[in-house]
């Protein structure tokens, strides 16, 4: 399984970014793609996830109402639309693939939100 994130960058507070996670090399239908982030000096935290089988989604309380996760099955890509960005959203964002747990991770993409 390979995961490649893209879409990170520098944005002002209140702005938006859309992250992409292009996935390949998997054969199962029942899996979950999750987005995580890690800020300097902080532990990695889960941001959002989506089930491929039924499309169910989950969000961290800190991003509810601002971030939206979605998937394009034809492109095997999962997106994270991030609106109303805050400086505290600054982190390296990773996507991960898993069935019972996350086994595969992308290389990460930097998101920096300036004041």
Which class of secondary structure composition applies to the elements? mainly beta
What is the makeup of the main sheet? 7 strands, mixed
Overall geometric form = globular
Tally of contiguous helical segments: 0
Number of strands: 11
Helix fraction by DSSP (H/I, runs of at least 4): under 10%
Which helices and strands appear, and what pairs or packs with what?
Layout: E1 2-6, E2 9-12, E3 17-24, E4 32-38, E5 45-51, E6 57-59, E7 67-72, E8 77-82, E9 91-98, E10 102-105, E11 109-114
Parallel strand pairs: 2-11
Antiparallel strand pairs: 1-3, 3-8, 4-5, 4-9, 5-6, 7-8, 9-10, 9-11
In short:
By secondary structure, the protein is mainly β. The chain is built from no helices and eleven strands.
What does this protein look like?
The chain has strands at residues 2-6, 9-12, 17-24, 32-38, 45-51, 57-59, 67-72, 77-82, 91-98, 102-105, 109-114. It starts with a strand and ends with a strand. It contains no helices and eleven strands. A hairpin with a 5-residue loop joins strand 5 (45-51) and strand 6 (57-59). The radius of gyration is 13 Å and the shape is globular. The strands form two sheets. Strands 2, 4, 5, 6, 9, 10 and 11 form a seven-stranded mixed β-sheet that branches. Strands 1-3-8-7 form a four-stranded antiparallel β-sheet, with no helix packed on it. The mean pLDDT is 95. With 115 residues, the chain is mainly beta.
């Amino acid at each position: 399984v390979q995961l490649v994130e893209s879409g990170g960058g520098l944005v002002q507070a209140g702005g938006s970014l859309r992250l992409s996670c292009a996935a390949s090399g998997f054969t199962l239908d029942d899996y979950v793609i999750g987005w995580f982030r890690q800020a300097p000096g902080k532990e990695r935290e889960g941001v959002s996830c989506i089930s491929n089988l039924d499309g169910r989604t989950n969000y961290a309380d800190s991003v509810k109402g601002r971030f939206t996760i979605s998937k394009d099955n034809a492109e095997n890509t999962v997106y994270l639309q991030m609106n109303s960005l805050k400086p505290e959203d600054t982190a390296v964002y990773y996507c991960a693939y898993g069935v019972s747990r996350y086994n595969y991770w992308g290389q990460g993409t930097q998101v920096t939100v300036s004041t």
